[in-house]
């Protein structure tokens, strides 16, 4: 599904990713954990194509195609989704309208017919039911006045309606209390499927109680420095990142 | 035609031998270039106007000669040579039109396409010859049906030139009563040379059974560059009036100086919506319409109400301040505005709310969007006069900037001469954030669509004031007018 080789990237003059290698197979959930400043968010932005993140070396193949030369909206069309750490507010645009614009853009890209308003409403309501989201959220402007938990649930809803093949979840647990964490975690788990890969980026192990990963990586100083199964995450929670940071430095 | 008038017509005719028209009354007829008393007499004669109206025009012209073009708006343009324009041009003969849509500017057709205008309508809008107007959306039957429905209620809706003949007492009573002939440079010019426009009278207690739209009428009569509109809502009546065709009119005329007067009596209300999309000039700022418009409503009666809603995306220069004189006690004035400028467009627009009566209230919501190298100014006046006991105003001016080379300016004037009056003003300026654009694009929405989405969200409070079918087209227009503004 995804094959990252020797990825180097910089922001401004600072090199953040320094030779990252990572392969994710279809249907697998990988977690990346690491200390602040390790390059976790940079990796998510490089994969989604944000301006200002310059790749200086290495390659990223997604379904055998060169991901790095695609515009962000093309990547979305190809099935790449990023759940933002800080979802962005769009005043005056209802969540419903936004979802419809997004889904129809992606469907158009995939050569599928666009939803009309009624069909779309039905389609979204099915998803909100599964994710236990109040339909009232659909009427509110995108992320405006949303609580931390609501924002993250809205991200999961977007993921559900866009049905990506590869989803990056960037610190989806940040700003969530325990209850919200459980709801979001269960929502994401419900979206696991043999055709869908996920990369869960997190600082803490607790999210992984709900989204149990197949593989756990440790990212420090721009490189993957350790890989293991879900037990690695538990170990990290106990011992912290100090050893890795020292070793990487 | 009396002897004096035909004499004038002959005189004018000899000023310049015009290559087409003028000789025949049926084909395109046009007065010679330039502006003088004879031209005004000619226009008046063509319209078979009564003496009082000619006198009024001449008074306006004499006054205009003593006036100077205003220089206070924040707009720049080369001096206008008022002698280099035609002031009378009847509907062009269809012979001048293109033979088919194949001969029409493809860029224009592309815009029609995006607006979803059916082919038949496109042909009429583009002026393709030999397409009978009545072939289009059955306009004859539509026109007839709606004329019957209106007549049944006693509503008068006709060209103002027709109203002058059919309802002279109403026109004489109200014309110039809100915007006097001496009001301002462009309104005075309009008073001297206006060629046509709409006239509406809603009788006492009548709720107009349908939205009145210039759309139908313009197709029929192709009004000129100096329109004069007069709407009277008699006691207890209601009307919603839609102005403007939402398709871009590539008008060759440079200067549009229209006047709109609204008169609202006791317990009556008028909702006046405009979508203005005249040719804004090309991406280098060449060409485009100069739109100098005076719009004013007099809320004369108690509990009267006027609501102006405008979406301005066209014209090279917009100079326009739809205003309300809140004279009747408890009268209400509203102004909802979206002004979008792109490339080299300039807009200086806003409103005036003059509170005269007790407990009058006004609400101003202005959304300015600037892109490219354009400049957008909100200029508004809120005035509380000594007798405006307990009156209040709320003003909100929001500006949105796209790119680094445009400007947004807010110039609110507030004058209060009554201690019990309340005036509130809020203003914000923001930019379309890179993070917002990226968020949309990550969800598969293209950059241009994302801009349209974000801007429509920004304008939502105003858009929702528009009548339904207008709102849909206005939303599409927002996207079209901002094309190429990012990236």
Describe this structure in words.
Chain A has 249 residues and is α/β, with parallel strands linked by helices. Chain A is built from 9 helices and 12 strands. Chain A has a 6-stranded mixed beta sheet with strand order 6-9-10-3-11-12, sandwiched between helices. In chain A, helix 2 (72-78) crosses helix 3 (95-109) and helix 6 packs parallel to helix 7. Chain A is globular. The model of chain A has no long low-confidence stretch (mean pLDDT 93). Chain B is an alpha/beta fold. Chain B is built from 14 helices and 20 strands. Chain B has helices at residues 3-15, 37-46, 51-65, 106-115, 119-125, 139-153, 160-166, 168-174, 185-193, 214-221, 434-442, 447-458, 460-463, 468-481, and strands at residues 156-159, 198-202, 212-213, 228-233, 238-243, 255-256, 259-264, 269-276, 290-299, 305-312, 317-320, 323-326, 332-341, 346-349, 352-355, 361-370, 375-384, 392-401, 407-416, 422-431. Chain B starts with a helix and ends in a 6-residue tail after the last helix. The chains are: A alpha/beta (249), B alpha/beta (487).
List keywords for this structure.
heterodimer; A: 249 residues; alpha/beta; Rossmann fold; six-stranded mixed sheet; 9 helices; B: 487 residues; 2 domains; eight-stranded parallel sheet; 29% helix
Write the layout of secondary structure elements.
The complex is a heterodimer of chains A (249) and B (487).
Chain A (H helix, E strand, L loop, with lengths): L1 E10 L2 E11 L4 E5 L6 H9 L4 E10 L2 E2 L5 H7 L1 E4 L6 E5 H15 L7 H15 L4 H4 L1 E2 L5 H15 L3 E5 L7 H13 L6 E6 L12 E6 L2 E6 L1 H10 L2 H7 L1
Parallel strand pairs in A: 3-10, 3-11, 6-9, 9-10
Antiparallel strand pairs in A: 1-2, 1-4, 4-5, 7-8, 11-12
Chain B lengths: L2 H13 L21 H10 L4 H15 L40 H10 L3 H7 L13 H15 L2 E4 H7 L1 H7 L10 H9 L4 E5 L9 E2 H8 L6 E6 L4 E6 L11 E2 L2 E6 L4 E8 L13 E10 L5 E8 L4 E4 L2 E4 L5 E10 L4 E4 L2 E4 L5 E10 L4 E10 L7 E10 L5 E10 L5 E10 L2 H9 L4 H12 L1 H4 L4 H14 L6
Parallel strand pairs in B: 2-4, 3-5, 4-7, 5-8, 6-9, 7-9, 8-10, 9-11, 9-12, 10-13, 11-14, 12-15, 13-16, 14-17, 15-17, 16-18, 17-19, 18-20
Antiparallel strand pairs in B: 1-2
């Amino acid at each position: 599904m995804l094959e990252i080789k020797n990825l180097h990237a910089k922001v401004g003059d600072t090199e953040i990713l320094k030779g990252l290698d990572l392969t994710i197979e279809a249907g697998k959930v990988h977690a990346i954990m690491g200390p602040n400043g390790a390059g976790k968010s940079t990796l998510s932005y490089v994969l989604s194509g944000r301006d200002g993140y310059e790749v200086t070396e290495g390659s990223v193949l997604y379904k055998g195609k060169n991901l790095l030369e695609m515009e962000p909206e093309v990547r979305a069309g190809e099935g790449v989704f990023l759940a933002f750490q800080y979802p962005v507010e769009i005043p005056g645009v209802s969540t419903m309208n936004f979802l419809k614009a997004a889904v129809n853009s992606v469907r158009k890209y995939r050569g599928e017919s666009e939803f009309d308003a009624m069909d779309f409403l039905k389609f979204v309501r099915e998803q909100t039911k599964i994710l236990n989201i109040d339909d009232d959220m659909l009427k509110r402007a995108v992320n405006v006045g949303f609580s931390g938990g609501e924002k993250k649930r809205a991200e999961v809803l977007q993921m559900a309606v866009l049905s990506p093949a590869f989803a990056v979840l960037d610190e989806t647990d940040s700003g969530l209390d325990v209850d919200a964490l459980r709801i979001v975690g269960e929502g994401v788990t419900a979206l696991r499927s043999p055709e869908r890969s996920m990369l869960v980026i997190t600082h803490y192990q607790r999210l992984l109680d709900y989204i149990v990963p197949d593989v756990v990586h440790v990212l420090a100083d721009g490189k993957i420095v350790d890989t293991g199964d879900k037990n690695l995450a538990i170990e990290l929670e106990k011992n912290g990142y100090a050893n890795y940071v020292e070793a990487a430095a | 035609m009396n002897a004096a008038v035909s004499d004038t017509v002959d005189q004018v005719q000899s000023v310049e031998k015009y290559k087409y028209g003028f000789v025949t009354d049926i084909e395109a007829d046009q007065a010679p270039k330039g502006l003088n008393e004879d031209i005004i007499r000619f226009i008046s004669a063509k319209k078979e106007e009564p003496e009082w109206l000619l006198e009024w025009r001449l008074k306006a012209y004499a006054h205009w000669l003593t006036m100077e073009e205003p220089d206070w708006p924040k707009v720049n343009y080369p001096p206008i040579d008022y002698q280099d324009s035609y002031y009378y041009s009847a509907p062009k003969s269809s012979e001048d039109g293109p033979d088919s849509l194949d001969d029409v500017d493809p860029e224009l057709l592309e815009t029609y396409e995006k607006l979803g205008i059916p082919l038949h309508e496109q042909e009429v809008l583009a002026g393709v010859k030999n397409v009978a107007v009545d072939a289009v959306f059955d306009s004859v039957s539509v026109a007839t049906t709606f004329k019957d429905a209106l007549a049944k209620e006693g509503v008068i809706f006709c060209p103002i030139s027709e109203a002058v003949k059919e309802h002279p007492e109403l026109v004489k009573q109200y014309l110039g009563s809100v915007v006097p002939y001496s009001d301002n440079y462009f309104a005075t010019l309009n008073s001297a040379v206006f060629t046509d426009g709409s006239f509406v009278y809603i009788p006492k207690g009548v709720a107009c059974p349908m939205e009145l739209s210039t759309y139908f009428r313009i197709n029929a009569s192709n009004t000129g560059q100096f329109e004069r509109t007069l709407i009277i809502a008699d006691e207890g009546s209601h009307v919603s009036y839609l102005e403007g065709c939402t398709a871009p009119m590539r008008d060759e005329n440079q200067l549009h100086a229209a006047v709109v007067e609204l008169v609202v009596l006791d317990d009556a209300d008028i909702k006046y919506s405009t979508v203005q999309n005249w040719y804004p000039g090309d991406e280098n700022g060449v060409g485009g319409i100069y739109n100098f418009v005076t719009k004013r409503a007099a809320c004369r009666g108690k509990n009267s109400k006027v609501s102006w809603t405008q979406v301005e995306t066209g014209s090279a220069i917009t100079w326009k301040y739809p205003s309300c004189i809140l004279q009747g006690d408890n009268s209400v004035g509203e102004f909802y505005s979206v002004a979008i400028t792109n490339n080299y467009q300039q807009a200086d627009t806003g409103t005036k709310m003059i509170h005269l009566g007790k407990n009058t209230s006004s609400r101003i919501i202005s959304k300015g969007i600037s892109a490219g190298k354009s400049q957008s100014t909100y200029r508004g006046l809120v005035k509380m006069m000594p007798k405006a006991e307990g009156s209040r105003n709320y003003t909100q001016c929001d500006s949105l900037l796209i790119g680094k080379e445009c400007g947004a300016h807010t110039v609110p004037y507030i004058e209060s001469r009554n201690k019990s009056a309340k005036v509130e003003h809020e203003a914000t300026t923001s930019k379309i954030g890179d993070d917002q654009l990226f968020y949309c694009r990550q969800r598969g929405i293209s950059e241009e669509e994302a801009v349209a989405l974000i801007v429509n969200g920004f304008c939502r409070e105003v858009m929702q004031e528009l009548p339904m079918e207008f709102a849909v087209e206005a939303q599409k227009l927002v996207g079209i007018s901002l094309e190429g503004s990012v990236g």
